[in-house]
Amino acid sequence: MLLYQHKSLNGPxxxxxDDEDDQYLIEQTIRRLSIPNEVRFFANGxxxxxxxxxxxxxxxxxxxxxxxxxxxxxxxxxxxNKSDYLRKKSxxxxxxxxxxxxxxxxAAYDAAVQGFYKKATNYAGMxxxxxxxxxxxxSCLHPNNDF
Length: 147
What we know:
Elements: E1 5-6, E2 13-16, H1 20-32, E3 39-42, H2 45-54, E4 61-64, H3 73-82, H4 84-89, E5 93-97, H5 102-110, E6 115-118, H6 123-139, E7 145-146
Helix pairs in contact: 1-6, 2-3
């Protein structure tokens, strides 16, 4: 039971993922976990960036792939970091991706991400990853909290 709530607790979960199968798995996992937040899918960082720049919503979380067309996940994260408006939203940013190697993980953390997960290879593993990520951010204090 949460003793406090942050403004974004009921905000959407933003998934930046170009693979339709992975979008489906993410959405099904969130529904099976009975998480009521709406999930907004974007096929690349450019689409997600446009949405975030135009909305007053405070998303609960950004789950982002790295390798995508038009604007990849690292470029997307760098654009967020350069924007005063988006930085002030304090949206937790977590990579959930199949790409992983030490230089890539280092580049992600250099861009101040809050997590980096290599996508599980099966549904049960992905279910557990998403459950852990969302539960953490539902209970974590951050600048959007009312406490």
